[in-house]
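Box S2. Input/output pair 1.
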Amino acid sequence: MRVLLVAYGSRGDVEPMLGLGTALRDLGAEVRVCAPPDFAELSADAGIPLVPLGRSLRETATKAVTGTAKPPAESLSERAARMVTATYESVVAAAEGCDAVVATGLIPAAAAARSAAEELGIRYLFVAFFPSYLPSPHHPPLAWPGRPLPPDETDNRVLWDQNAEHLNALFGAAIDTHRAAVGLPPVDDVRDHVLTDRPWLAADPLLSPWPQSADLDVVQTGAWIRPDERPLPAELEAFLDAGEPPVYVGFGSMPVREAPDVARAAVEAVRARGHRILLSRGWADLAPTDEDGDCFPVGEVNHRALFGRVAAVVHHGGAGTTTTAARAGAPQVVVPQMADQPYWAGRVAELGIGVVHEGPTLTLDSLSAALGEALTPGTRARARDLAAAIRTDGATVAAELLRNTVDPS
């Protein structure tokens, strides 16, 4: 069996795909991944070949967040058309000889992946990593940047209908124009076409349950976790051993505005609570603002090994970081910035395993207050109790399901 994994998105989209890829490879499958070039090293570490998709996502995201990007010379619809064409060309070449394409990420890219699968006559599957990407009467759709949900509308079905209309207006023409150019028929509904009537949900059922409904036949496999057996660097081990558990602060593949100010506020707030600090660089390029020995800069390390040795995890609320911290039993302070992050922040608070930071920008006072709640004995006890119930077999479940789907015999 040969499988192509397509993920046009951040690390939170790519790393779970590498988890699935590893599980598929363990079953004897040949796997490659189509993703932004930023994740070439991550993919190489997993032993899965990467086909670069588009330009550097980190560079694009950093310019957008810091306000250094030039005003776009083309409309969103025009950019979507370019993404559809470029993704299709990459995917149709990379998927040659494959039995299936599994896609996630931005709608235009996933639509192109489905077109490529149709052209090659192979199986297409879509996966979401959090429930609110998928239509349900039990929750509203994800709010798009620059297009907040109408505050006076509370009927989720109406909101999802509006969501479908919005996606059709943004991407329908670009997708249909490209499909016509490669000899494929137009689509009636962009969202339904991309998601299919049986999408997969790769999220832990305790952390992120799917509210069952008759609208969509969702297959929840559990979270796709990439195996990571790397030891922690010796310098980090020495820092951890030199005192009480520190507080980890990091924003993963999320750039932030005024990174030095954010780093300074984080360090001062953690110190105010009497703890040492692990400051993760990430795409925000966070760095210590002084030379005191209580703050240690962290690069690319094994979070699974690290989070079990910290007092709390302060993070942006990505699916992977939330799940890893929950598995480790570490209390969390979630500082959501965008996309699925408010959802994960809400789940952490509902489960009582951490708190939601007030607003997307850290200050000494705001983070100190949030840490005061997260570091209580009750929160730590709930986090430890829940950790034992988090499933670790999601990628294996999905790999076996995919094998049975592609080859029922």
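Box S3. Input/output pair 2.
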Amino acid sequence: MTALSPRRTFSGTALKTIACITMLVDHIGASCIEAGILTPGLDAGTLSQDTLSAYPLYRLDMVLRFTGRLAFPLFCFLLVEGFVHTHNVKGYLGRLVLFGLLSEVPFDLAFFRTPFFPGAQNVYWTLALGVLAMAGLRHFEKENGLPGWQGLVFTGRWH
């Protein structure tokens, strides 16, 4: 009889790697197939829905996008872990905003074919808002560890 090996866990680096790979897979589907790099008729609206469903790239796109759905929850988990363990929330937030600014033009070019598209922004802005919400909850935390009413108002959670 052999002893069972000890339980192994994912490291933060492994989770970041998985999140980055699944995000890349998702972005390949979104930018190359849906935004029209590989399917010029799709973004121009010249492909009908019947033609599209039979299109092999459409099926590939579904696989890529479904695989990519794993990225955001992983990044959110890592964001919370980073927030809990950071000693400098302002620096953490600043880095998110900096990467949001640096990646906005490439994001808009890849997905909307224009250097600035006001209708959508990259995910760094959503993550930065998440850090702001956590910082607000922490700032207005009661002595018993529960969020105060100001923290709930700050984050918009009142139900």
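Caption for Box S3: The longest helix spans residues 89-112. The helical segments are 12-34, 40-44, 49-54, 56-68, 71-85, 89-112, 123-139, 149-155.
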